[in-house]
Amino acid sequence: MEVISSAVDLFRTTLITIPFMQLFLLILISTLLLLFGSLKLALLTNYLFTFYWGFNANFGKIDVVSTNNFSLFGLVYLGFGSMVVMLFLLSFRYKAQQ
After folding, report:
1. Mean of pLDDT values over 18-28
2. Which residues contact 9 (CB under 8 A, 6 or more apart)?
3. What is the mean pLDDT of residues 12-26?
4. Hey, which of 4-18, 23-37, 61-75 has the most confident mean pLDDT?
5. Separation of alpha carbons 25 and 10, rounded Å
6. Residue 73 burial by CB count (10 A; 0-12/13-18/19+): exposed, middle or buried?
7. What integer is the mean pLDDT of 53-77?
8. Confidence of residue 38 (pLDDT cuts 50, 70, 90)
9. CA proximity to 61, closest of 51, 77, 76, 74
10. Which residues are within 8 A (CB) of 41 and not within 5 positions of it... i.e. 6 or more apart?
11. How far apart are CA 95 and CA 98, in angstroms?
12. From 19-28, 58-67, 68-77, the region with the lowest mean pLDDT
């Protein structure tokens, strides 16, 4: 029960500021992709937006080019994010079986 309480407290105290223009572009692009029937691209757009802002919130002040300051968690975060994008791109090769 204490773990849940600490997790709820973390979400209450965390503040992430996302610029309005980027939110507007996300909603616009996602809506257009969904209207034109491209569900996979809409999901990828939302994933990349979440991935970008998750990275920006955690590692925004770190120089990504310099590996001296980059933590192991940052490399794991980028690795898993890259794997998800690669799996998504591979999924375009396969058609849904009906």
Report:
1. 90
2. none
3. 84
4. 23-37
5. 28
6. exposed
7. 68
8. confident
9. 74
10. 33
11. 9
12. 58-67
Please state the separation of Cα 71 from the chain's center in Å. Answer: 19
Q: What is the DSSP string of 9-76?
A: HHHHH------HHHHHHHHHHHHHHHHTT-HHHHHHHHHHHHHHHHHHHHHTTS-SS-SSS--HHHHH
Contact 54/76 with Cβ under 8 angstroms?
no
SS3 of residue 94 by DSSP:
coil
What DSSP state is assigned to residue 88?
Answer: H
Distance CA 90, CA 14 (A): 35
CB distance 30 to 46 below 8 Å: yes
Half-sphere exposure at residue 8, Cβ-oriented, CA atoms within 13 angstroms:
5
